[in-house]
Design a protein that fits this description.
Layout lengths: L1 H23 L9 H7 L1 H11 L4 H10 L4 H12 L17 E6 L51 H6 L30 H10 L2 H12 L8 E14 L8 E17 L9 E9 L3 H14 L15 H7 L2 H9 L6 H27 L1
Antiparallel strand pairs: 1-2, 2-3, 3-4
Helix pairs in contact: 2-4, 3-4, 3-5, 4-5, 7-9, 8-9
GO molecular function, one term: lyase activity
Keywords: Lyase
Pfam families: PhnI (PF05861)
Length: 365
Amino acid sequence: MYVAVKGGERAILNSHKLIAEERRGDTSEPELSVGQIESQFGLAVDRVMTEGSLYDRELAALALKQAQGDVVEAVFLLRAYRTTLPRIGVTEPIDTADMDIERRVSAAFKDLPGGQVLGPTYDYTHRLLDFGLMEREGSAPQAEIANQPLDGSMPRVTDIVGQEDFMEHEIPVREGEPVYDLTRQPMAFPANRDQRLQNLARGDEGFLTALAYSTMRGYGGSHPYVGEIRMGEVPVEFVPEELGFAIEIGDIVVTECQMINQFGGSKTEAARFTRGYGLALGKSERKAMAMSLVDRALRCHELGEMAQFPAQDEEFVLYHTDNVEAAGFVSHLKLPHYVDFQGDLQLLRGLRAEFEARQTKEAAE
């Protein structure tokens, strides 16, 4: 047994060296720096930050480098690091109305107050490979700067619709009540919206996108409009106990999506639009959109709708969105199952023997 352990230890150590060798790749090529990943793989960095629940671009870039670009592994690394950090306190809720907007589009209103701001987007590219990027030193074109700054007052589209009472009201802030902390509390059902939104924000983008897609293909009865997508910097405020008032401690980039959904209404309430909400760190538009669609689907009970489809099943969605847990459970199959398999083999041999004996007996009769 001791010899086997020593042999396993050597193999594991050598495996680590092999990983490091593969991570470095061709040594005739310059090594990627964390700074390069942070600045040039920005969308991957933002996804790792969002699903890793930690706003730190440099550490997210480091995780991506260490994981050879494997996003789920990088998310795992960042979350593991997050557990080592002390918790100083809880910030005030960010107010996206104060956003320094870089992108803001609406599919509901063309001429909305403040205007549409296209910002950086792949929406209007041809999706053709740019072979010019194969050049080692490429000069990027510089975008033109507008003559005037953006209008500082850009009301949310849902607020505009709400002025005519066509939009359901916002859920009031529960002053004084603690916010559910999914990073410290286990999953609980039925889940309130704060728990659900935290789960969706940390959830795997691919899984959420697939669920969001299903709601529009007949498995959720969703026919939404993108009320508004806005992306940019928002201030983060914190109230130190010794001061008793909020101070600004920094700015973070977030992407917010408010989805306007089907008419609601019942015998007691007039028909009006309902909303789905999505928020992700950095430039994570697809994630925010998918999150808002799934959020609306999960609100079926509070809106008096029958839950019929996977995206409306709270336990199914919340238990399976986490890619770290999902990857861990799938990966555990690689661990030794020798005893279990030998047991199954023995059982299979017995069943086969009984089957063949029965066949032989029936043939003789």
